[in-house]
Design goal:
With 222 residues, this protein is α/β, with parallel strands linked by helices. It has 8 helices and 8 strands; from the N terminus they run βαβαβαβαββαβαβαα. Helix 6 packs across helix 8. The longest helix has 18 residues.
Length: 222
């Protein structure tokens, strides 16, 4: 499967609702929540999330780049989050955090920074709907793609296949027309794209082009 996930971090904040409507053809919407502590930046809160959800019927991925994300799980689910993705670096027990999200009725995922190894988190993949590989340092949009993280994607893909899991592999950071193919070839399913979508003259066409590029790259690997 291929999922194109525009990140509203790159949208026009003065016209956020209109920008989200422009990407109605996207598979889901990616919402970056930053607290100025776990990452050195601030972004959206639950009120903005709820407002944007109100103009879109799409699936919402909530990327919680915040300290103590467990305190906010219920809040962001109430605000419209369909899947909560927390950072393993921000929690003491990623298994307990996943179970908390599941008990609240949402899908769950974990994100992992470029410098964090994936191997310690492979045993409990069955608890997670998605794993998000960061291909930039979290905290700011517009950074350059780090291809060295694709080794983690391939490790994940092999492990998921061996166990017959349905866990989705996502990638976040520097994804655009020039980088999406190599991520797709490595085994990525879900592609977060910010400026490549909302910086385009026609965001909907940009989504379609990214999907075509990913599909062609995946087909070349089969």
């Amino acid at each position: 499967m291929i999922y194109i996930a525009p990140s509203i971090l790159a949208a026009d904040y003065a016209n956020l609702g209109n920008d989200v409507r422009k990407v109605a053809n996207a598979d889901l919407i990616h919402v970056d929540i930053m607290d100025g502590h776990f990452v050195p930046n601030l972004s959206f809160g639950p009120d903005v999330t709820k407002a944007v959800k109100g103009v879109s019927g799409q699936f919402f991925d909530m990327h919680l780049m915040i300290e103590e994300p467990e305190r906010w799980f219920e809040t962001y689910i109430r605000a419209g989050g369909d899947r909560l993705i927390f950072h393993v670096e921000a929690v003491k027990d990623h298994v307990a955090a996943a179970q908390q999200v599941k008990q609240l009725g949402a899908q769950t995922g974990f994100a992992i920074k470029p410098g964090t190894p994936i191997e310690p988190y492979l045993d409990n993949l069955d608890l997670f709907d998605q794993v998000m590989i960061m291909s930039v340092e979290p905290g700011f949009g517009g950074q350059k793609f780090m291809p060295e993280v694709l080794g983690k994607v391939m490790t994940l893909r092999d492990h998921i296949a061996e166990r017959g899991l349905n866990t989705i592999i996502g990638i976040d950071g520097g994804i655009g027309n020039e980088t999406i193919a190599q991520a797709a070839e490595a085994g990525v399913d879900a592609f977060v794209a910010g400026s490549a979508v909302f910086g385009a003259d026609n965001p909907a066409e940009a989504v379609d082009k990214l999907r075509r590029l990913a599909a062609a790259a995946q087909a070349s690997e089969t």
